Amino acid sequence: MPHITVDYTGNLADAFDRRGFATALHPLVAKTIDTTVEACKTRFLRSDEYVLADGGPEHALVLVRAAVLSGRTPEAKTRLSEGVLELLREHLAPTPGLSVQTAVDIVDLDRTWYRSHTEPAGER
């Protein structure tokens, strides 16, 4: 926890610094919602089949969904979503001819049911 999924349209593949985004994102998340960088997990899903707006090729999208343990305040979630949007702008190169939509969704993982385990390196 947190589990972060970043969906992005294939027409942004060369313009989106994904590794730079994730390495800047993890400290932001840790600070904002009081967790650790080591707990953050981000995966990127490139979509080459999508329809945005009127379906024209000039549309692009990056959608970040962060699933965090329940109990965070609405203010912390707002700060996180705003910070993520700012980071996205910093890690997207100019894209002439593209209309780029960016969005963030913060969702709760129920503390009652959520479980996780990390196997230390070299333990198996």
UniProtKB/TrEMBL annotation:
Keywords tagged on the record: Isomerase
Task: Give the molecular function GO annotations.
Answer: 5-carboxymethyl-2-hydroxymuconate delta-isomerase activity
Xref: InterPro entries: 5-COMe_2-OHmuconate_Isoase, Tautomerase/MIF_sf
* Listed Pfam families: CHMI
Quick check: keyword Transit peptide in the entry?
no
Where is coiled-coil annotated?
none
Which SUPFAM superfamilies does the record match to this protein? Answer: Tautomerase/MIF
Task: Write down the PANTHER family for this protein, in alphabetical order.
Answer: 4-HYDROXYPHENYLACETATE CATABOLISM PROTEIN
Write the protein's name.
5-carboxymethyl-2-hydroxymuconate isomerase
Specify the species.
Actinacidiphila glaucinigra
